[in-house]
């Protein structure tokens, strides 16, 4: 029979603060509980408990592809038994990203077997580990190592190999949104051009999670950013916000085709790197502004239109046109330390106040329909975050 020893703890009310995503849920004010070890026969199992054992999970599940708010359902399931190389994780928070929506719609490059739990990103805390687990321990904060893990649930038993630890001295919402957008931005700024302080990067979709991470990481490295956004009613407010986090210039899509661009290039050099998350005409216009020998990276296609490359850009400017998918990068580096080194550098920026999560709207699991609908609306500047 399993033995659970419940230790008394002094707790205080926990909450996620504000829409700025800067509040701490489980950092300095977190419940500080003690792990205990129970010996059963020859098997040692570690526990982390402030209450009864977690045996069930409430999850957002889809059994067919389609409109997210129509096919996703809230279900409760019994958790599977803990195996030797697995860990029981209580989820704390999980964002709703475009890739999540595309998976539910059935349009993403990789699709989990159905029925599936939604969510590719999030942060949880380890409650219990199997007897042979070595890379995570009870009490650790963990995020998914790969896509498709299914993070929209209150708890889960995950394989040790599917998890990577993150420090608990950053905010929950920074940790929850760390594994996809900041990693995408970091790798694109690091791996394709040798960018130095004073160089320039141009990007569309600058209001996206990736776009905001690009602005902040580039600013920390002394790199100029020209950030392109679509015209909208709150354009001035958006422009002010992007500049506040480090954008050098914020311009509308139409400005890419206007003489105003020449004035910008009198102040800063033409970009070595263009980052395309839109496709279509927007991508073509980014490409035109690259310096000779520069690179355009496509990491998304919001416009659902092909990228057209002018012949002159290839012949006379020798530009390079590449693609980037952070999921593939993680798989290629599954067995080395590159992911952990990158996460450590990103967390250093977070601690220094140089990298923050985008504005967020926190939503309880029961209000998931509203969150899914809002995640699909145009011009929504706030990321939807499910809090467990």
Characterise the protein shown here:
- This protein folds into 2 domains: 56-178 and 358-387, Quinone Oxidoreductase, Chain A, domain 1 (Alpha-Beta Complex), CATH 3.90.180.10; 181-328, NAD(P)-binding Rossmann-like Domain (Rossmann fold, 3-Layer(aba) Sandwich), CATH 3.40.50.
- Helix content is 26%, strand content 24%.
- It has helices spanning 68-71, 98-105, 172-176, 181-191, 209-220, 235-244, 260-267, 280-288, 311-315, 326-332, 338-351, 368-375, and strands at residues 35-40, 43-48, 56-62, 72-78, 86-95, 116-117, 123-129, 141-144, 155-159, 163-166, 200-203, 224-229, 249-252, 273-276, 295-298, 320-323, 360-364, 383-387.
- Strand 14 (273-276), helix 8 and strand 15 form a beta-alpha-beta unit.
- Helix 4 (181-191) packs across helix 5 (209-220).
- It is globular.
- The protein starts with 34 loop residues before the first strand and ends with a strand.
- Residues 1-45 have low confidence and may be disordered.
At the first level of CATH, the class of the largest domain is Alpha Beta
What is the fold named in CATH at topology level of the largest domain? Quinone Oxidoreductase, Chain A, domain 1
Largest sheet: 9 strands, mixed
Rg, Å, rounded: 22 Å
User: How many distinct folded domains?
Assistant: 2
CATH homologous superfamily identity of the largest domain = Medium-chain alcohol dehydrogenases, catalytic domain
Number of helices: 12
Query: Can you write the helix and strand succession as a string?
Result: EEEHEEHEEEEEHHEHEHEHEHEHEHHEHE
Please count the beta strands (DSSP E, at least 2 residues each): 18
Proportion of β residues?
A: 15-25%
The helical percent reads 25-40%
Mean pLDDT: 88
GO molecular function, one term: enoyl-[acyl-carrier-protein] reductase (NADPH) activity
InterPro entries: ADH-like_C, ADH-like_N, ER, GroES-like_sf, Mito_Enoyl-ACP_Reductase, NAD(P)-bd_dom_sf
Organism: Ictalurus punctatus (Channel catfish)
Domain Enoyl reductase (ER): 66-386
